[in-house]
Amino acid sequence: MDDATKNELSEILPLIKFSCMDYEFVKIKKKFLFSLSESIQVLSLSNRMWKAHVIAFDGEDFIELVSNTEEEDFIELIYELVEQYALETQKADPEADLKEAIKKKFDEVFPRINFPKIHFKFFTKFFADKEFLFSHTQLCKALSKSIKNKLEEEKVYEMAEKEAIKKQQLTIDNNDLNDIIKAEMSEFLNDFLYYKMSFAFFIEFIVPKAFIFSELKLYHGLSNIAGNEDQEILFNTVFKLAEAEATKALSVNPYISVNKYIKRIFLEITRKIKFSQIKLEFMIENIGMFFFFCKILIEVLYLS
C-alpha cells in the first residue's frame, strides 16, 4: 500500500513547494514518501514559526518567560535524521568516519537554519557535545544571531573576539594582523545587538578594537548605551578616538588638517553627549579638550 501510494505521488512530489508549507504539517506527513535525505531537505524548506513567545521587563532587561520555537524542534529532529543518514552511510562504507558524515550532511542544512529563532541557552545545551558540527565562523555566526540577554550578548562577542585574536596569533602570512581580526569578524559583526551591552563592556572590549568598526558606528554605539554617569568617560573616549583617527589620516595624507578632521567627527557625536551630566571639575582637568570643543561650537553657532 505504502509503495503504491509513493509511486502514485512520485511525479507530483517534486512539483510541491514545501517552502510554502508549515513545519508541523510537513513533519506529520507519511515518512514512507521520502528517503532520509529527502526528509531532511523537505523539513529544512518548511516554514517554521514561533509556538509561544512571552517576554517581561524586569527593570533592567527583557526576560523570556515562556518561549519555544519550531526552529528548536526542527534542530532536534533534523539532527536525529542526519545522524540516521550518517549511520546508514557508515553501514555501506565501514571505513567512513561517522562525525565527518554527520557534519557533511548537516552543512547542507546549515544555511537554512533560522538562528534568530533559536535561544542561546538551547543552542549551547543541545550542541554542547556536538562542537564538531561547526567551524569557528559558523559557530560565531549562529550564536551572534541567536536570542540572547545582555550577559549572553557580551559573552558571545567576547568569545568571537578571542577566537579571532587566536587565529591572528597563529597566522604566518604577511597580512596586517588587524586586518586578519577584522576579516574574521566581518561575517557576523552586524548580527550583534550592541544596545544590549553595558557601557563598561563596550569600553573594555570594543573600543580597544576600534579598527573593526566604522567611526560613526563606534561613536553612536557608545553614545546610545552611555548612562548619565558615563558622560565624562564618553566625552574623553570620543575625543581620544577622534585624535587617533586624525593621526592615522595624517600619516596617509600629510596635508590634512587634524583640527578639521577631529571637528568633523565631533560634530556628528557631540549632540548626543549630555553635558549637563559632566562635572565642572572634569571640565577643568580636561580644559584642552573643552577649549577645542567650545571653538567648534562657536563656529557652528556662527554659521547657523
Key descriptive features of the protein:
single chain; 304 residues; mainly alpha; two-stranded antiparallel ribbon; 15 helices; 2 strands; 5% strand; elongated
Detailed description of the structure:
- Mean pLDDT is 79; it is low at 300-304.
- The radius of gyration is 26 Å and the shape is elongated.
- With 304 residues, the protein is mainly α.
- Strand 1 (50-57) and strand 2 (62-69) form a beta hairpin.
- A two-stranded antiparallel ribbon has the order 1-2.
- The chain has three domains: 1-130, no CATH class; 134-195, no CATH class; 198-304, no CATH class.
- The chain is built from 15 helices and two strands.
- Globular, elongated, flat, extended or rod-shaped: what is the shape? elongated
Tally the structural domains.
3
| Biggest sheet features | 2 strands, antiparallel
**SSE pattern:** HHHEEHHHHHHHHHHHH
Q: How many distinct beta strands? A: 2
Give the helix tally: 15
The percent range for strand residues is 5-15%
Helix content: 55-70%
Cα gyration radius (Å): 26 Å
Q: If strands are numbered along the chain, what order do they take across the biggest sheet?
A: 1-2
Alpha-carbon distance between the two ends: 83 Å
Instruction: Name the quaternary structure.
Output: single chain
Task: Determine the mean pLDDT.
Answer: 79
